[in-house]
Amino acid sequence: MANERWTATAAVPPPRRPGRRWALGIGIAVLVLLVGVGVLLVRPGSVVPANTFVAGVPVGGLNDQQVRAALDGPVRDKVEQPVSLVVGTQTFTARPGAIGVRLDVDATRRDLGATRLRLPGGGRHDVAPSLTVDDATVSAALTKLLAPVNQPARNASVTLAAPRTVLDGKGDLAYQASDRGVTLDKGEPGRGVDVSDAARLLSEAVLAGKTEMSVPVRTLAPGDDTPKLAGVDQLIGTFTTYHPCCAPRVTNIHRIAELVDGTVVPAGATFSLNDTAGERTRAAGFVPAPAIVDGELEDQFGGGVSQFSTTLFNAAWFAGLDIQKHQPHSLYISRYPPGREATLDWRSIDNVIHNDTSAPFVIRARTTDTSVTVGIYGHTGDREVASVTGARQPRDNGGFRITVKRTITQDGTVTGTNTLNWTYRGLD
């Protein structure tokens, strides 16, 4: 057999392209690089951004636990450090944390923010601390701390003395207004610190990290303890009448004087003795005593109050005031000035005085066992009042007619005259 050769043909793969290998290698390298960069730039947990400070204390890069420890430690110590309060020439030390101005850790932590990136540090970043302020506690503490600075103002006041006997008598008399019995106290300014301002300034100082601050001292203007008496500076009229001691009518005189004493009548207003004293009853403190009723004496509650009415009438007469209503007794009573007297009866006979001056007038009364004095305080300037009583003109039953003339002089000029005419039907 002839020699035969068999030739086998094998399949050969095509040659690989070198570009694919390079691309794969580059991809792997980039991936490794990115992972490395991520490891370098991204933290496993959040931290405060770098270069962050609170109250000068560095807190950048701290995790939540660490930053809270820093806030509750060195940051709180710095924020709540003692502050010197300079008040005038005095200095006081306030400890903010102890008096209600405290670091708010939670709010400050929120303001700090957080990041997981490891970025290159930029410029310094200061975060202002947040505070909690207990207004009531701060106010009470500063009030106590600054008490030595505060000096209350002394208020202005008008004091009117119970009147003493200056004018009495049944004949011709004159009276000129004076400052007798009047004490005017203009008051005195005080000084003090506005606690609300001090609390605000303290909070601002704490936020700014200051250890000293100035607190302004204010002048405190005096108030007025007697505002209703503004303008009252004179005893403008007064009068005294007398009576025997210890009779029931004296109880009534004293009681009505007590009820009227201190009455203030504003400028332009009108005073009614009946309205002010009220009905004379046992419940009101009055007792039965003789009174003239229809020309006859009989006991009634409040008997004797006409003596107070007469005394008040004369005080107003010599003050030059406008006496709008009054009525003398029907029978003349020898203890009273003839014509210059005024009876009183509940709701039928009144004693009404109009304040025609520019200031209030004040009625003061003083009683003793044998006298009653009424003083009227107000302001009439350089006023003088003269009263002249004419001769008695006899009438039947021992009665008589009488005329009394009042002349009012203001600053040397006669400004008014008044004439009283009355006829008594007899004698008491």
Q: Give the domain tally.
A: 2
Residues in helix, %: 10-25%
Distance between the termini: 198 Å
Indicate the low-confidence ranges by residue numbers. 1-10, 35-41
Q: Helical region count?
A: 8
Strand content: 25-35%
Mean pLDDT metric: 90
Structural class: alpha+beta
Overall outline: rod-shaped
Determine Rg (CA atoms, Å).
Answer: 49 Å
* Largest sheet geometry: 5 strands, antiparallel
Number of strands: 30
What is this structure's SSE topology?
Blueprint: H1 18-41, E1 42-47, E2 52-54, E3 57-58, H2 64-79, E4 83-87, E5 90-94, E6 101-103, H3 105-112, E7 115-117, E8 125-127, E9 131-133, H4 135-145, E10 157-160, E11 173-176, E12 182-185, E13 190-192, H5 195-208, E14 212-214, E15 218-220, E16 234-242, H6 248-260, E17 263-265, E18 270-272, H7 273-277, E19 288-293, E20 296-301, H8 305-319, E21 322-325, E22 331-332, E23 352-354, E24 361-367, E25 371-378, E26 383-389, E27 393-394, E28 400-410, E29 413-424, E30 426-427
Parallel strand pairs: 2-8, 4-14, 22-30
Antiparallel strand pairs: 1-7, 2-3, 4-5, 6-9, 10-12, 11-26, 13-15, 16-25, 17-24, 18-23, 19-20, 21-23, 24-25, 26-28, 27-28, 28-29
Helix pairs in contact: 2-3, 4-5, 6-8
